[in-house]
Amino acid sequence: MISALRMVNGILTITEFELRKVVHDSSQVFVRAIQPLLWLVVFGGVFGKLRVLATGSYSYLQFLTPGVLAQSVIFIAVFYGITLVWERDFGLLNKLLSTPVPHSSIILGKTFAAGVRSILQAILIFLLALAIGVQLRVDPLSVLGVLTVIVLSGMCFSSLSIFLASMLKTRERMMGIGQAITMPLFFASSAIYPVELMPSWLKVVALANPLSYTVDALRALLVTGDFSRFPRDLAVLILATVVLTVLATVSFKRIID
Predict the structure, then answer these.
(1) Among the listed residues 110, 50, 117, the one whose alpha carbon sits nearest the alpha carbon of residue 84
(2) What digits encode the pLDDT tens for the residues 27-59?
(3) CA-CA distance, 237 to 232, in Å (whole number)?
(4) Which of 213, 242, 256 is CA-nearest to residue 108?
(5) How far is C-alpha 249 from the chain's CA centre?
(6) Could you count the other beta carbons within 10 Å of the beta carbon of residue 213?
(7) How far apart are the first and last CA of the chain?
(8) Which has fewest Cβ within 10 Å: 69, 89, 200, 247?
(9) What angle, rounded to 10 degrees, do the helices at 103-131 and 230-251 form?
(10) Which tens digit of pLDDT belongs to each residue from 103-125?
(11) Is the Cα torsion angle 251, 234, 139, 36 positive or negative in sign?
(12) Angle at alpha carbon of residue 76, lines to 70 and 77, rounded to 5°
């Protein structure tokens, strides 16, 4: 019981520490929202008028908005490992490791903070979508479900980033790998086009891509209201988050070796 309380207290402490960074420099939330906003306004607007993609009874902007929300999560989470390397280089990580906070609490606190930060950016995307006339479901249960999916997705991809940081160990390498995997993850998902339109080999990649399940869950919550695949999407996200969090925790200490 005491160990569990100590772990929870450690998670909340690390989460609070990470979120204070956003309070001190809130401009990064708006800066990182620029590219997803461009995808929604420019790409979505153009392809919506062209009507080249079959999206059923929904407009292309409705179809795209959950994908852009998911993309905004990736932009926060995948580069989270760079912050970890920066903290190591400035000696902050050694100080953190010298505290009695368990390594698992550090990882869970940082990844949970990444999920919460993703919510802040997703709110901007959501409000813009409503402002330009995209029809979305905004009932309380849908909003609660969206927040849950975004936090899980943020934890999932930030765990991946922390795991990669423990392997690569430099900011330059992390910046390179972040840029190398962000767009492939985005394009190899159902974010901007239906999986049915993909070639066979890309369908296989999309099925193994956690982002596809994030987009599918958000699309069900915000657009279609079809929850037949929602339990599967949530289960895959939880499984991916658990696996990647364990990998990040096990390899975490390697970042300072």
Answers:
(1) 110
(2) 666 666 677 777 777 777 777 666 666 666 788
(3) 9
(4) 242
(5) 18
(6) 29
(7) 32
(8) 200
(9) 140
(10) 788 888 888 888 888 888 888 88
(11) positive
(12) 85
